[in-house]
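Tokens in:
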């Protein structure tokens, strides 16, 4: 299975968005699924 490539802008923006959503009380699995990244990538 070929992985999806993200643009440099997405790579910079995704961790900031994830932290913001996690601060709102969402669970990590839901955030990662929405952002289309794996837990290993987020760590």
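Residues out:
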């Amino acid at each position: 299975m070929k992985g999806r490539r993200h643009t440099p802008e997405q790579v910079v923006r995704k961790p900031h968005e994830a932290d913001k959503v996690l601060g709102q009380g969402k669970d990590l699995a839901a955030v990662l699924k929405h952002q289309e990244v794996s837990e290993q990538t987020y760590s």
